[in-house]
Write a structure and sequence with these properties.
alpha+beta, Yope Regulator, Chain: A
């Protein structure tokens, strides 16, 4: 069992390590990017990296206040599903994944299961998964984000 301080240090070391590794990669549009806090450039769309004890996830979350806008954005993403999955890999799609701060969240996500975040020997594989998915996601997203920007306005 890790102490609170040890968990904090492990978290800090992991995310700083991933940030350093990703510094060498530019976005597909040629610009530098903060991969850890990936900018969606669309209000109420978030790209989240989640590392839990037994699961690593890259999430594409749609969560506007207005359910009609969320439905429109979700519909657009389902129309892009084949393209997205051919670029990034097969994803899990959940139109009403959960609620966050009173808002319904539609989530598309890619998961890596079975690796223990608290076992430092698994960090290389977890980082590799996140790096691979982020770079592939970025290639897709930079191509199609203008559609989402227009729909979200």
């Amino acid at each position: 069992m890790l102490t609170k301080e040890a968990r904090k240090e492990l978290n800090t070391n992991f995310w700083e390590g991933l940030r350093k590794e990703m510094r060498n990669h530019k976005s597909s549009n040629g610009r530098g990017i903060n991969w850890i806090n990936y900018p969606s450039d669309v209000k109420d769309i978030y790209i989240r990296l989640v590392v839990a004890p037994k699961r690593t996830t890259l999430c594409f979350d749609i969560q506007p206040k207005d359910d009609d806008i969320r439905s429109i954005l979700w519909e657009q993403m389902t129309e892009l599903k084949v393209v997205m999955e051919s670029e990034v890999g097969e994803a899990l799609w959940n139109e009403e994944s959960h609620e966050l701060n009173g808002r319904k969240v539609s989530r598309i996500h890619w998961e890596l299961n079975g690796l223990n975040f608290y076992d430092i020997k698994n960090h290389k594989e977890i980082k590799s998964f996140l790096r691979d998915k982020l770079i592939k996601f970025d290639t897709f997203y930079q191509e199609y984000k203008e559609i989402l920007i227009t729909l979200a306005e």
